[in-house]
TrEMBL record:
Residues 501-679 form the Vacuolar protein 14 C-terminal Fig4-binding domain. Residues 302-330 are annotated as: Disordered. Scaffold protein component of the PI(3,5)P2 regulatory complex which regulates both the synthesis and turnover of phosphatidylinositol 3,5-bisphosphate (PtdIns(3,5)P2). Pentamerizes into a star-shaped structure and nucleates the assembly of the complex. The pentamer binds a single copy each of PIKFYVE and FIG4 and coordinates both PIKfyve kinase activity and FIG4 phosphatase activity, being required to maintain normal levels of phosphatidylinositol 3-phosphate (PtdIns(3)P) and phosphatidylinositol 5-phosphate (PtdIns(5)P). It is found in: Endomembrane system. Residues 312-321 have a biased composition (Polar residues). Forms pentamers. Component of the PI(3,5)P2 regulatory complex/PAS complex, at least composed of PIKFYVE, FIG4 and VAC14. VAC14 nucleates the assembly of the complex and serves as a scaffold by pentamerizing into a star-shaped structure, which can bind a single copy each of PIKFYVE and FIG4 and coordinates their activities. Interacts with NOS1. Keywords: Membrane, Repeat. One of its GO terms (biological process) is phosphatidylinositol biosynthetic process. This is Protein VAC14 homolog.
Length: 739
């Protein structure tokens, strides 16, 4: 640098010190410049002030000599400090040369440039806002600077700039003539970005500002552009600012109502994961739960109106439905879209007369959470509650998604949580019983299983075979109608039990009992019996019949069905008995217990007589043991009391003696033997041959049941089982142990 050049009003000593390689000497020069500028400020001599800034910028900060550039930067910072509140008048001249030095190849010089700009912004405070764009561009260059000192300096400058912006907004909010709520959609995104800052103080200030805005929103909800800000809240629902985002979202839903419905899928994407938080994030979880509950209440039956119908009620300009781009944003990929694009794609006003529920987007979000194995239990429960709610409120539209949802709903039955399974069964039961799922004339529910009929043999009447044929939609006059998905559900449920034997063993009884509460028990047993009649896996059929029989005999949920079967006085009850009997034949002991339940004691005796021809295994005897235990349970109290009437129930006693003869000398043998020893006056155990001892035979009161045909069916089924067991024994090195 030419030291002979005139740099007045800067003295030669100041010029020399600014060019020195030592920082301390440059600092002394900066102090002298500060004194000089203060004098010019006192004299109101703006011309000299501009002249000093120009010299420092052109001759020093933009010099080719590195030490001169460093001196120019510290000199410009000194000018800003001296100017104080008046620095805003000279900001462009002060900032531009400093920003130029951000591109310097020397990392030390870039650091000094950061330091100088920090001092300039600190003094100017809110006055720097008109220059925000250039400042932001400069900071963005230093954010990824390879030098850690430069990067650290840029972070300090970034926090200072944010702090200044917060303070300005806070001041503007208190000005009565300015309604900042009108402009809130323009800078709400920025506020939430700043809320994630690493500085605790900056976050505190931002929280205060946001809190003030939220108070104003609650006071004046009619003037708030909710629709323009809904997705902004969605994209900022990550960890650091999640609680604030959820709090705002909760208030938006409660204040704006159905205006937020087009953004439901995006809101659910943000809310659902929070529902599985533990107590460490209790506040966030509670806010998310409130959001979820309020949003669910907004869905009403009017949302089940077809799109064509809704278009006749409102024009395309006023339907409030989101665009395809927005739908994708809500359901799936919103995090990849810039905030500016996001704001451009939302609705332009919150007072539109009609809104459209984004049902497709919601179902997509719910289905994705069900498929995700990492989804928490409470989130899965919430997802299933949503599905149930949607099937109740919008059944017509929801059944369009049933085929895609059905496999995952079936898979969810294997969940580890009983509560999840209960909610899942509620959804499946609603699908199976909703009138919206009925197959119409046009075949809107195109399902081959829906056309299946349950053909139930009823024996003979007046010498002619009676077959009770009933569609799944109306199993009997005493049961509510089921739709075309009911039979499909039963088939797939049994298929799942067949493939997952552990599910059948651990949860089978629980699932079937709950279904009997949610749907009609007769429908459940009727359909399962018919399906098992065609089951090719005979071992599974036997196991399944044993499970169903245990439920039938022991569960409180089946009380009404047991009473219906106790007295076979109607054609419907007889048809049900025949239907169950034919499938129960897969398990001989279960068949006998069914006869005991229906008081068909003579037929039970006839069946036990055939047990001598069966392959008696340890498993078989264990089932007989369990039956003896059941006979001693409250379920069969009426049977034990009938032992007092020996004259009219000889076949009951003979059947029990038949079981006794099957048993080895075991505890069950002793139990049944002791029971039979209590039967009074054994001499009265005479059969029908004695005319003085008439036998009450229930079969005489049921002419439309062909018991001979039922016995023949039992023989055929057991022959198939025997053949299969022999085939297995031939392939196995260890056949079943026999007695």
């Amino acid at each position: 640098m030419n030291t002979e050049k005139d740099f007045s009003p800067l003295t030669p000593n100041i010029v020399r010190a600014l060019n020195d390689k030592l920082y301390e000497k440059r600092k002394v020069a900066a102090l002298e410049i500060e004194k000089l500028v203060r004098e010019f400020v006192a004299q109101n001599n703006s011309a000299q002030i501009r002249h000093v800034i120009q010299i420092l910028a052109t001759e020093f900060a933009l010099s080719q000599h590195p030490h001169s550039r460093k001196g120019g930067l510290i000199g410009l910072a000194a000018c800003s400090i001296a100017l104080g509140k008046d620095s805003g008048l000279y900001l462009k001249e002060l900032i531009d040369p400093v920003l130029t030095c951000f591109n310097d190849s020397d990392s030390r010089l870039r650091y000094y440039a950061c330091e100088a700009l920090y001092n300039i912004v600190k003094v100017a405070r809110g006055a720097v806002l008109p220059h925000f764009n250039v400042l932001f561009d400069g900071l963005s260059k230093l954010a990824a600077d390879p030098d850690p000192n430069v990067k650290s300096g840029s972070e300090l400058l970034d926090r200072l700039l944010k702090s200044n912006i917060y303070e300005l907004i806070h001041v503007l909010e208190s000005v009565p003539d300015i309604n900042l709520l009108d402009y809130l959609p323009e800078f709400l995104d920025g506020l939430f970005q700043i809320l994630g800052d690493s500085s605790k103080e900056i976050r505190r200030i931002c929280e205060v500002v946001l809190g003030e805005f939220l108070k104003e929103i609650k006071k004046n909800p009619s003037s708030v552009k909710f629709a323009e800000m809904a997705n902004i809240l969605v994209i900022h629902s990550y960890d650091l600012i999640q609680l604030t985002s959820m709090t705002w979202m909760r208030e938006f839903i409660q204040l704006a109502g159905r205006v937020v419905l087009p953004y439901s899928s995006g809101i659910l994407t943000a809310v659902l994961p929070c529902l599985s938080y533990d107590d460490r994030k209790k506040s966030t979880k509670e806010a998310a739960s409130a959001c979820n509950h309020s949003l669910m209440k907004l869905v009403t039956p009017e949302d089940d109106v077809d799109d064509e119908e809704s278009q006749t009620k409102s024009s395309p300009q006023s339907d409030g439905s989101p665009s395809k781009k927005e739908s994708d944003l809500n359901g799936k990929s919103y995090c990849r879209i810039s905030t500016r694009s996001l704001i451009c794609c939302v609705l332009c006003s919150s007072d539109r007369p009609a809104v459209t529920l984004d049902l497709d987007g919601i179902v997509q979000v719910l289905d994705r959470h069900l498929h995700d194995s990492s989804t928490g239990m409470m989130t899965r429960i919430a997802v299933l509650k949503w599905l149930y709610h949607l099937y109740i409120k919008t059944p017509r539209k929801m059944f369009k998604h049933t085929d895609s949802l059905f496999p995952m709903l079936l898979k969810t039955l294997s969940d580890e949580s009983d509560e999840v399974i209960l909610k899942d069964l509620e959804v499946l039961a609603e699908i199976a019983s909703s009138p919206a799922g009925q197959t119409d004339a046009s075949g809107s529910c195109d399902n081959s299983d829906s056309k299946t009929e349950l053909h139930i043999p009823g024996g003979v009447r007046d010498g002619q075979p009676v077959v009770v044929g009933c569609k799944v939609t109306d199993l009997s006059p005493s049961t509510p109608s089921m739709n075309s998905y009911f039979y499909k559900f039963m088939i797939n449920l049994l298929k799942r039990f067949s493939l997952e034997r552990k599910l059948l063993e651990m949860r089978g009884a629980f699932i079937i009992r709950q279904l009997c509460l949610l749907l009609h028990a007769e429908n459940i047993f009727h359909s399962m019996a018919d399906i098992l009649l065609k089951e090719e896996d005979l071992k599974f059929a036997s196991t399944m019949v044993q499970t169903l029989n245990t439920i039938l005999l022991t569960s409180a949920e089946l009380f009404q069905l047991r009473n219906q079967l106790k007295d076979l006085r109607t054609q419907e009850s007889c048809a049900l008995f025949c239907c169950l009997y034919r499938s129960w034949c897969h398990n001989p002991v279960a068949t006998v217990s069914l006869c005991f339940l229906t008081q068909n004691y003579r037929h039970a005796y006839d069946l036990i007589q055939k047990f001598g021809d069966l392959e008696v295994t340890v498993d078989f005897l264990m089932e007989v043991d369990k039956l003896v235990q059941l006979i001693e349970s409250p379920i069969f109290t009426y049977l034990r009391l009938q032992l007092l009437d020996v004259e009219h129930n000889p076949y009951l006693i003979k059947a029990l003696y038949g079981l006794l003869m099957l048993l080895p000398q075991s505890q069950a043998f002793q139990l049944l033997s002791h029971r039979l020893s209590c039967v009074p006056n054994p001499e009265l155990m005479r059969t029908v041959e004695d005319p003085k001892a008439p036998v009450k035979d229930k079969r005489l009161a049921q002419p439309h049941i062909d018991y001979s045909e039922l016995l023949q069916h039992f023989d055929r089924v057991q022959s198939k089982h025997l053949e299969v067991r022999h085939q297995r024994a031939g392939r196995s090195e260890h056949p079943d142990r026999k007695l």
